[in-house]
Amino acid sequence: QVQLVESGGGLVQAGGSLRLSCAASGRTFSRHAMGWFRQAPGKEREFVAAIGWRGGTRYYADSAKGRFTISRDNAKNTVYLQMNSLKPEDTAVYYCAEGRVDYGTGSTARSQYNYWGQGTQVTVSS
């Protein structure tokens, strides 16, 4: 059974930075793609960033390009999301997710992830 635990969220002023972490249990992390999604109040959960199993491929939502960076450390079973130049519209609960297939390169689709964390709140004040 895989468990994902996010951390690093909080309250930050516009223009500030946060680094989210997601620690995974289980033996599948190092061969699965990982993704970050977010959900703002009253909105659908949306894709933010994804990274392939070895870190060789990365995908970003248009809203994240140039500001967010996804990375992973397979030795620590952890995936990260560095968020810079934060905006009030980045306010949401951020979730990490583990991909379904072995040796995946990452996906923007929620359906391609079968394990999800509980989420961490990010609030950006103006």
Describe this structure in words.
With 126 residues, this protein is mostly beta strands. Helix content is 0%, strand content 52%. The chain has no helices and 11 strands. Strand 4 (32-39) and strand 5 form a beta hairpin. The N and C termini lie far apart (40 Å). The mean pLDDT is 97.
Would you kindly provide a brief summary of this structure?
The chain is mainly beta and 126 residues long. It contains no helices and 11 strands.
**Rg computed from alpha carbons, rounded to a whole number of angstroms:** 13 Å
**Overall spatial form:** globular
Q: What's the story with the biggest beta sheet? A: 7 strands, mixed
Helix/strand class: mainly beta
Question: Termini, distance in Å?
Answer: 40 Å
Which series of helices and strands comes N to C?
A: EEEEEEEEEEE
> How many beta-strand runs?
11
Any chance you could write out the topology, listing elements then pairs?
Layout: E1 4-7, E2 10-13, E3 18-24, E4 32-39, E5 46-51, E6 58-60, E7 68-73, E8 78-83, E9 92-102, E10 113-116, E11 120-125
Parallel strand pairs: 2-11
Antiparallel strand pairs: 1-3, 3-8, 4-5, 4-9, 5-6, 7-8, 9-10, 9-11
Q: What descriptors fit this protein?
A:
about 130 residues; mainly beta; seven-stranded mixed β-sheet; four-stranded antiparallel β-sheet; 11 strands; about 50% strand
